[in-house]
Each structure stands twice: as structure tokens, then as C-alpha cells.
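[worker-b] picked up task from shared queue
[worker-b] task type: protein-ligand structure
[worker-b] ligand name resolved to S-adenosylmethionine; SMILES cross-checked against name lookup, match
[worker-b] sequence length check passed
[worker-b] input payload:
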Amino acid sequence: MEGTSQLAPDGARFAGLLAGFDAFGSETRRSETDGVPVFENEFWTAKQRQAHPLHEVSYRACFKPQLPRFFIEAFTGPGATVYDPFAGRGTTLIEAALLGRRPIGNDVNPLSRLLIAPRLDPPSIEDVAKRLGDLELALPPSLDEPDDLLAFYHPETLRDIARLRTYFLEHAGDAVDAWIRMVCLNRLTGHSSGFFSVYTLPPNQATSAARQRKINEARGQVPTRRDVFEIVLRKTKALLKAPLPATLGMAAARILTGPAERTPEIADASVDLIVTSPPFLDVVDYPTDNWLRCWFAGIDAEAVPITLHRSLTDWERFVAACFREFARIVRPGGKVAFEVGEVRGGKLALEHTVLAAAVGLPFDPLAVMINRQVFTKTAQCWGVDNNAKGTNSNRIVVFERR
Ligand SMILES: C[S@@+](CC[C@H](N)C(=O)[O-])C[C@H]1O[C@@H](n2cnc3c(N)ncnc32)[C@H](O)[C@@H]1O
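[worker-b] inference finished, payload out:
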């Protein structure tokens, strides 16, 4: 039988589990909100087991692998079905696969699939090196090389990127091609020589060409020639430097593209655990952040119906629609860990809205976990931006399906 996850821990067992985290941060603070126990600590810290390097592709507002790992290990056993309806770069799916669970993912942006699928089915470094060598010799002429992109790239680098883009758009390709395209998507822009571009914003945020011209002027820089093939091989070696478990593979995995509120492809009561993080009001502008990646992938970024709600009432309605769908697909006793942030300069903590959205649905709230994060360079990976639009804590509302 699929979804062999054991146990449906009750609130008390879950509380005991959280108490165990005192070893990592300071003591867990306990309180209550809306009648639900709240646990607050620095739950996921650098002292914990390191994440697999396979996760290391950047994506705006992604969470740390330790977050889904905690819930996957707490609530499921091998073979269980773990789903992320807002999959992004696929942190939940990759971690589920690494732990021998069956991953299902969904994201409204088709880019997500391109980032996730190759890492669930990685080729060998040797195969990637050989294919890169073949491609370097025999790439098709490029379909187009937008002049605007010269703000980011040396003309010859742009030619290589555009030819690779054409190759991927014109070939169905195999797993090795899919891997190379995924790595290219992650090397398009960034702030070091490990990227194809001149110095720009970190790779999880693409700036506009006009803004990049200003950055170039201010820094007195011009894009220099980059060896895209060497950069792709270097990043491949970094992603694949640790052993991969035999459980990895696309055979059992499913990745869907569409709105989280409507997933008819997923059978009733077939999911053991959801670990996810939805778009929070209008904190992150995914289309703007991903425009260059979408160009490379041949996706019309403007046409992707990303959810962006400016009013809390609309956002609550959206979350309620998602939970109605979760009520259909999560089996009785299954869990949902729904991660949100605080927005509007910390004045609005979204867990209250999540709890309100689930009222009247067959979900019992088990706890709210608040992860207080000391600001670090890597905190961006939590959507922590250290500015007015950012969020300084992760707030996870945990539910059990009745
Ligand atoms: C906070 S990010 C998730 C990041 C993910 N946890 C990770 O670690 O990569 C939210 C994601 O929701 C997607 N999204 C926005 N609206 C959506 C919708 N209505 N249905 C499904 N996905 C949506 C965005 O494209 C984005 O990838």
C-alpha cells in the first residue's frame, strides 16, 4: 500500500518533539494563540545536520531543507506521500526523495518543474561533462539574442547562452539535457564569477536590464567573457558532490503545473503530509524575479497566473480555497505544515489568517511553530530580506486531517 506512514501523533507527542529542539536554540518558549499552542525557538540552525548539496539552487523565498525534513521525519515513514502545492525550487520534494518518501509537487509556474525534475533524476558528472563537450562543438545558431541582455553578458557569452536556449527549445532532450538546462537556469545571473553574468543581484532575484545598466555604471563595470560550459560543469560537480541515495528517481515522483486550489490529478485521501509555503500577500514578486529564467526556458512570465493578493481578506479566501483542496487529498490522520511569515514590517503575523481560513474544514490545528532567525547572509533563503518587505520569522501552522 502506498502512504505507509505510521503514527498520527497527538498534540502532546508533537509538543514533546518540539521540546527536543531546546538542544539547538535557546529554550522553547510556549504560549497560546487562538486556542492553539505556540512554540517559539530558533528551530533550524547551522548546528544541525547539513542539507544535501543537491538543494543548492537558489529561488526567492525558498525554505531551508531542514524545515521540510523536520516534518517529514516527525510525521511519515518510508514510502509515504509528501506533497508541496507551492513547490518553487522543490525543497520539500528533494528532501522527501532523499528520505525515501514519494514526492508530489505543484507550482503554477512551469519553471518549477524544470528546476525540480532533473534533481530527482540526476545524471552522472561524466555524462554531463561529455554532453557539454558535444554541445560546445555543435550548438545550433541562436533564435534571438536580445540586445537588452548585453547589460548582463559579454556578447560572446550571450551568444553561447542564446544558442543553448535555442537547443533546449528545439530538442525534447533527455535527462542529461534537462540537467544542463536546470544548471543554466541557476547560473544566468549572480554576484560572483560562478555565474554567466557580470556582477548583479544574487541569483534568486533578477534585476531589470535598465537597473543593471545603472549598476554597471555605478560600479564602473562591463561584462567580461564567461565560459558557460565550464561554469555548468563546476556547478554540476558541486550539486553532485555528496552520495545520492538509491531512493532518488522520477519513477514515483509527480510534478504538476497549475493552481494549488485545483489539483484533480491528485486522488482523494492519497497524501500523507503537505509541507508548503504559499505566496504571502504581495511580499515577493515572482514574475519580476523570474523574468530572465522564464526567457531562457521559453516561458511567457507575464502569462503565468501567480497569486498576488494585496488585501488580507482576498488572501484568506485564497488560503481557504487551498485548504478545501487539501481536505480532499490529505488522508484522515495526515498532516499539513503551512509556513507563512510576518509581513508589513512585522505588524501582521499571518498564522492568524491561516487558522481562520481553515475554520469549518476537517482540520484540527496541532500547533504554531515560530522560528526566530538571527539575521545571516543565508537568511535570504527564508525570504528574510532585512528590509520593510521582508519577513524575520517563519511561522508554521501544523494541522491534522480529521
Ligand atoms: C514561497 S514560494 C515556495 C518556495 C518553496 N517552498 C521552495 O523552497 O522553493 C511560493 C511559490 O508559489 C508559486 N505560486 C504562486 N501562486 C500559486 C498558485 N495559485 N498555485 C500554485 N503555485 C503558486 C510561486 O510560483 C512560487 O514558486
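[worker-b] attaching auto-annotations
[worker-b] Confidence is low (pLDDT under 50) at residues 1-8, 376-390.
[worker-b] releasing lock
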